[in-house]
Amino acid sequence: MQRSPIKHCRDCGNAVRYRLPDDGDTRQRAICSACDTVHYENPLNVVGTVPYFGDRVLLCMRNIEPRLGKWTLPAGFMELGETTAQGAARETDEEAGAHFEMEGLFSVLSVPRVGQVHMFYRARLLHERFEPGPETQQARLFGEHEIPWDEIAFRTVRETLLRYFDDRRRGVYTVHTLDIE
């Protein structure tokens, strides 16, 4: 992913230069020209859930860009100070207003072209009432054959849903890993 390069040191504010660090690192890093602080650029974690009630899953229609008006699983960027499961639970609460019981990790999808790793947990919904937050136009349960597949916002969501329904048919849930090019 091409992000804007780091221009200034976060510690002292002086200009940085991209070069190989002196410690044997093999990647060019943003290194401060004054204090020699090395700045690492790492992927962002996106965390969410596959909330289900019986044989249906909960999808949220996005009320924000990107992909305004498209359907997605409740998910968003992980915050500092929380675990992946805590972040997934927070996002599900914020976006869907759902009451649920967290279950195991379900999918891990690496998306290097945008510098992200997406992680989805299964979440058993406790009832069918939802109170979507401002980022969601509506939250709704869908059976597999009702899902608006052409209106799914992100490939990571589509791939996770496909694997969820495959596992559901088999009666065994496993952790899925996938690289999205």
Whole-number radius of gyration?
19 Å
Q: Any idea what the CATH superfamily of the largest domain is called?
A: Nucleoside Triphosphate Pyrophosphohydrolase
Residue stretches low in confidence (pLDDT < 50, at least 5 long) are none
The total domain count is 2
| Spatial separation of the terminal alpha carbons | 11 Å
The residue-averaged pLDDT reads: 96
Structure summary, number of beta strands: 11
CATH architecture descriptor of the largest domain: Alpha-Beta Complex
Task: Quote the beta fraction.
Answer: 35-45%
Q: Give a short account of the largest sheet.
A: 8 strands, mixed
* Helix and strand run: EEEEEEEHEEEHE
Task: Offer a few descriptive terms.
181 residues, 8-stranded mixed β-sheet, 2 helices, 16% helix, 36% strand, elongated, 2 domains, Nucleoside Triphosphate Pyrophosphohydrolase, Ubiquitin Ligase Nedd4, Chain: W
